[in-house]
């Protein structure tokens, strides 16, 4: 009888434990899947963005170089020479100021292989911070200087309106460049905020996510 009771208790324990274990495993797999999307999509977007804008500026450089000597209008040749300088600086900037996402993906894969979820969370926060900095006012300073000088040079040639148009066009292109950068980590940042739930003497580590909709604001906590 005691053997039967022991066997029944063991079976009951397994029946209860297995679903919990399966749920925890599924939850962990879901976490990795979310991180996979963020880091892999970010790196893919970064490569497309990097080479796409490099190609745009390289094409602009080639066109301006041609126009600087072949345009029939002297003003067009002058503006093209200014454009050559601007485009060359832009190409150089694209080649030297690389997006952080490909390097972050390589580090993520290393951390994932070792199962270091906390390290991945910290990496996601660092990447989100880098994305925010690349969209901040500091990212506009160099463009402001270059386009300001270019516009002033054209204005000093006696064409103030053309100088203003050149400046405004250059700043608009720079804004497009900034806002088309990858921002996968920034968009997902709330899914990766670490949080601890305290219930008296018990502390349960986990994560929280904020959900903002037009008619409601909510939060989800997971462990």
Short descriptors:
single chain; three-stranded antiparallel beta sheet; 223 residues; 3 strands; disordered N terminus; mainly alpha; 7 helices
Describe the fold and architecture:
The protein has 223 residues and is mainly alpha-helical. 74% of the residues lie in helices and 12% in strands. The chain has helices at residues 2-70, 74-96, 101-113, 117-134, 138-156, 160-179, 184-187, and strands at residues 193-199, 202-213, 216-222. The chain has a three-stranded antiparallel β-sheet, with no helix packed on it. α1 runs antiparallel to α2 (74-96). The longest helix is centred in the first third of the chain and has 69 residues, at 2-70. Mean pLDDT is 80; it is low at 2-27 and 210-219.
Spatial order of the strands forming the largest sheet: 1-2-3
Mean pLDDT over all positions: 80
Computed CA radius of gyration, to the nearest angstrom: 27 Å
- Which ranges are low-confidence, i.e. pLDDT below 50, for 5 or more consecutive residues? 2-27, 210-219
- The count of β-strands is 3
How much helix, percentage-wise, in residues?
over 70%
Outline type: elongated
Specify the biggest β-sheet. Answer: 3 strands, antiparallel
Q: What string gives the helices and strands in order?
A: HHHHHHHEEE
Q: Into which percentage range does the β-strand content fall?
A: 5-15%
Look at the helices and sheets and give the structural class: mainly alpha
Provide a count of the helices: 7
- Report the span from N to C terminus: 40 Å
